[in-house]
Design brief:
Qnr family pentapeptide repeat protein, five-stranded parallel sheet, mainly beta, elongated, three-stranded parallel sheet, single chain, about 20% strand, 5peptide_repeat
Length: about 220
């Protein structure tokens, strides 16, 4: 894949890419910390340098309604970003760090809603510890070894996901859609599945793990 522009070891000014469409750019060890990337679109961009095995730094950046499509975000630092309405689609995001990220719009101290569209993306070994992603579109993702300790996914669409080496009882998955998902390690005895949507094949597998045979 040919890149049109290459940025190396750059610290960007806050409004450098605000609202822009960046296609086929390569960012090597770049610093987006504190940048306003509201409505910015990144398409076929590379944010991970395979030679140094380093990602870019987006700490405290504003990513409201920003989109990343067909990008490599592996090992990037997304800590404490404002990511309401973010779209990450068909990306590589192994090892991405979302700790402290907010996908939430606070209406009052007791009322809020979340918005995020993270789909068809490899989130293996990503850190989503303590994030709140309620009622979000999170389907067809790969969740291998993803850290979700203390996270809240209640009401989200997690259908079509591949879950392995995954700690189901460490987060809130109530009322989620898990249909079409590979739910390795999911145990009915240790995970609260209130309101969870499953297909019949998944239910059969889960019940069989309890030693119960389901006859058709």
């Amino acid at each position: 894949m040919t890149m049109s522009l290459v940025f190396r070891n750059e610290k960007f000014s806050p409004d450098r890419f605000t609202g822009c469409i960046a296609e086929r750019y390569q960012f090597i060890n770049c610093d987006f910390s504190g940048c306003d990337l509201t409505d910015t679109q990144f398409i076929h961009c590379q944010f991970y340098d395979r030679e140094s095995e380093q990602g870019c730094n987006f700490t405290r950046a504003t990513l409201k309604d920003a989109s990343f499509k067909h990008c490599d975000l592996s090992m990037n630092n997304f800590r404490s970003v404002n990511a309401l309405g973010i779209e990450i689609s068909e990306c590589r995001a192994q090892g991405i760090d979302f700790r402290g990220a907010s996908f939430m719009n606070m209406i009052t101290t007791k009322s809020w809603f979340c918005s995020a569209f993270i789909t068809k993306t490899n989130l293996s070994y990503a850190n989503l510890s303590k994030v709140v992603l309620e009622k979000c579109e999170l389907w067809d993702n790969r969740w291998v070894g993803t850290n979700v300790v203390g996270a809240i996914f209640s009401g989200s669409d997690l259908s079509g996901g591949e879950f392995s080496s995954f700690d189901w009882h460490s987060a809130d998955f109530t009322h989620c859609d898990l249909t079409r998902s590979i739910t390795s390690d999911l145990d009915l005895r240790s995970t609260d599945l209130e309101g969870v949507k499953l297909d019949s094949d998944q239910v059969s597998i889960l019940v069989e793990r309890l030693g119960i045979r389901v006859e058709e």
